[in-house]
Amino acid sequence: MTISLDWKERLKSDTIDFYENKIPQKYYDIDVLYNIYPERIDNKVPQIVVTYVAKILASKMAKKADQYFDFYDYIIANKGDYGITIFSYIMASAIKKNPDAYINYIHKVLNKTTHQKNCNLLLDKAVMPLLTSNPNKYLYTVLDWTNSDNDILVEGLKKLIIKFAGKQPKYLKPIFKKLETAWLYASPEIIKFNISFLKSIYTLDKKFYISIYQNYKSTRNLIFAEILSNSIKVYHPEIEELAQNWASSGNVKLKKIGQLTLKHLKKMKKK
pLDDT digit string (tens) for 105-115? Predict the structure, then answer.
């Protein structure tokens, strides 16, 4: 759908008025802006309307965005998905101007998020630009966020980092090395994260992908075996050798992983 020119003018005028006159008075009920729009989709204000309001507000607040943390706290806590949408677009503009003023706040918001869609939007709008513009400064900070107990954040970071690596493959090895340091005590979510990232490595750099299995050809660590086994994308003799190592183990769980991996590799070899 599209917003008519008349409604664009109305929304723009009301949003500017809200920014200039309401926010300074600590009136933060921003839903008065988009709730006036008459159409509904599934009984909700169309997302395009909220996004339009968000972009206008972001253009006004970006230069002095560090003055409005009370406003952010309020809309994040009280305005649901739309509050996160508006916050994400404000941060998308503000963070380019002064990243260090907002990065920790964004991290706190992400750690509390309970909806995957909201998490992904904030990561895409506010965090991806940092990785793209200055990966050497912010990549390891973002990778450290994967230690969160919030499964939704970890899932969002997985998609973000894989997307970033696809755009800048030269960071594949540094990212993998950083993630690898957490293998020994990896939670179930971090295990899934590493499996997904290893699979993406195969797509982007097959030589590096095979070298990872070569480096682990003697391992009998259960967590390592789980990650490596579930990340296999292609048959390779050295991967088969690794699986045979597991299958010959006296550890029942590792032996089972090895046997299942060998069956999987056998099918791949026939193709």
Answer: 999 999 999 99
Q: What is the pTM of this model?
A: 0.86
Alpha carbons 30 and 178: distance in angstroms, whole number: 41
Dist CA 100 CA 259 (whole Å):
50
- Number of neighbouring beta carbons within 10 Å of residue 235: 15
3-state secondary structure of 41: strand
CB environment 32-41: b (16+ within 10 A), e (fewer): ebbeebeeee
User: What long-range pairs does 221-227 form, CB within 8 A, spacing at least 24?
Assistant: 221/183, 221/184, 222/251, 222/253, 222/254, 222/257, 223/183, 223/184, 223/186, 223/191, 224/183, 225/254, 225/257, 225/258, 226/191, 226/257, 227/183, 227/186, 227/191, 227/194, 227/195, 227/198
Q: Of the candidates 152, 107, 149, 154, which has an alpha carbon nearest to the alpha carbon of residue 130?
A: 107
Q: Contact at 8 Å (CB) between 103 and 139?
A: no
Angle at 18 between CA 64 and CA 100, to 5 degrees: 20
Q: Cα–Cα–Cα angle for 133, 170, 227, nearest 5°?
A: 110
pLDDT at position 128, please?
Answer: 95
Residue-wise pLDDT tens digits, 192-246: 999 999 999 999 999 999 999 999 989 999 999 999 999 999 999 999 999 999 9
Per DSSP, what are the bridge partners of residue 44? 41
Query: Could you tell me the two tokens for 161?
Result: 């980092």
User: Would you state the structure tokens that stand for residue 85, as one six-digit string?
Assistant: 């949408």
Nearest-CA neighbor of 145 among 171, 127, 163?
127
